[in-house]
Structures are given as C-alpha cells and as structure tokens.
Design goal:
The protein has one domain. It is built from 14 helices and no strands.
Length: 293
C-alpha cells in the first residue's frame, strides 16, 4: 500500500469511528439495547468476512479466553459512552472520551509495569481544568452524561492497557471478532438483568434504526477497523497517533453540523473543550520531540 493511500484510509477510519457518536444520538434505542445490536452486527460482520476469505480459525476462537474478557470491557465502555450521548449530547460524550489520555498516563504504567512518563502525566493533567469548566455548571441529565462519559474513558484506558499486557499470537481479525462476541455475551447478561429489574421499553429497532445500526456495526466498526489496521502497517506510530487523536475533533465538528448540538452548549463548554483538545493534539507532537532528544 502506498503511503498516500495509507493516510487516506486512516483518516476515513477515524472519521467513521467519530461517526459512532452521531449515530448513537440518532438511534432511538436505549444505550444497552443499541450496544447489543452493534456488537451482534459487528461480530457477525467480521465472522462473515473471515469465512468469505476462508481464514476462519476455530482453534483461535476457542482457545483465547482473555480476549473475551476484553470484549466484555468493550461492551461496558460502549454502554457508558452511548449512555453519555443519550443523557447529554454527542459533543459532550466525545469531549469526555478525550480524557483517556489522563487515565492512560497513570493506568498503563501500573498495569504493564513500564515506568511512569512525566510528560504523559503533565498532558494528562491538562484535561482536568477542561472537565471542571464543562461540568462546573452542569446538572441533571447533562451532569450524569458527563460522569458516564468519563467512566467510559476510564474503562477504555484499562482495556487498552490490559490488551497491551495480554498481547497474544492471534491475528487482528480474529481478535476483533472474539472481542465483539465477548461484548455481545456481556450485553445478553446485562439486558437480562435490566429486563428483570427495570424492563426494556424497546428492543426491536424500527426501519430507520435498523439502517443506522447496520451503518454503525458494519461501517463504523468493521470497515473502520479494517482500514485502520491496514493503514497503521504503512505509516509510523507517531503519524497514526496524530490522526487517531483527531477522532473527537471530527466527531464534535460533525455533531455541531448534523445534530445542532451548539444549542445545548455554553461558553464554558467551548473553553473547556479547547483545553482538552489542545492537550490531545499537542501531546503526540511533544512526545515525538521528547523521544528524539
């Protein structure tokens, strides 16, 4: 693959991933039901791809239990992320998602055993004033959405660190399929408990929701992952991080343009969001210069 094509694929992948927040806002189903359908569609999509390419490996699927545990964490992360969208809005959820740098700076060294990196901690701490500005005057559902958004970021930081620690000899396609299977099984248990305690208002999607779910599961999950996996093999780790860090930027721009989130946002949100996005964008630039010296 040419370098130009790799960059194009990576940007398309990140834009598709950013679109998950938009679709999460448009789909009328609850967060837990939405995640159940997303994981089912994505898992079946990857499995069909492997069968079509005659690459399905039954032994890998049955012998990697830790990957299913990682999938369970993905499911809980998505419940929190889409719950944040439902309670607040897509822009707020995406900004809270950007706090992953703060959590990863502390959690990854603790889990993987690598030394704490000072500049990662500094840039991670930069997000705190941004969150304070965003959440300072929030209340009710907006505040609950912010808390869920931060929780989703925390869970993803733990997931990413464990994935690095539990790296296994299994190809990325099978790993993704197993993670989706683990997430789907977790959602089956979650929805069963939710039905018993609270009841589920709507489980079956209508025609519009079904279209959005197919886009979410196939394009924004399966295709985005395949494009990203292909691209990172051809570009440097630094350049891939620079592009991937644009996900909340793309997502917020799309939310403001397509969902008209600006009506629900105040000046404090924009200042806080600017601080968080600045830390996310500047960090890899500083890291690159730091590594060279």
């Amino acid at each position: 693959m040419s370098l130009k094509r790799a960059y194009i694929d990576l940007h398309i992948a990140v834009m598709l991933l950013a679109g998950t927040a938009i679709l999460g806002d448009l789909i009328s189903l609850s967060a837990s039901v939405l995640v159940w359908w997303r994981t089912l569609i994505a898992g079946l999509g990857i499995a069909f791809y492997l069968l079509l390419r005659r690459r399905f490996n039954k032994a890998s699927v049955l012998d990697r239990k830790k990957i299913y545990l990682l999938g369970a964490m993905v499911g809980i992360h998505w419940i929190c992320f889409f719950g944040s969208i439902k309670l607040a809005n897509a822009s707020t959820a995406l900004i809270c998602f950007a706090t992953i740098s703060f959590f990863t700076a502390w959690i990854e060294p603790w889990i993987t055993g690598r030394p704490l990196v000072r500049h990662e901690v500094v840039f991670g701490l930069m997000v705190i004033p941004g969150i304070v500005l965003i959440a300072g005057r929030a209340e009710g559902d907006i505040l609950s959405g912010i808390i869920l958004g931060i929780a989703s970021s925390l869970i993803l930081a733990i997931f990413s660190s464990l994935e690095k620690k539990w790296i296994m000899e299994v190809d990325a396609e099978h790993m993704t399929m197993m993670q989706m299977a683990g997430a789907w099984l977790t959602m089956c248990v979650w929805l069963g408990g939710e039905q018993l305690i609270f009841g589920v208002d709507q489980f079956w999607p209508d025609a519009t929701d079904l279209v959005y779910l197919l886009i979410l599961g196939l394009l924004c999950t399966c295709v985005a992952w395949v494009l990203c996996t292909r691209a990172v093999r051809s570009v440097t780790a630094y350049d891939s991080i620079m592009v991937i860090n644009l996900e909340p930027v793309y997502g917020i721009f799309m939310a403001l343009l397509l969902l008209n989130d600006r009506k629900e946002l105040n000046t404090s949100f924009y200042i806080g969001a600017s601080i968080i996005l600045a830390s996310v964008i500047i960090h890899p630039i500083w890291q690159n210069r730091y590594a060279r010296h």
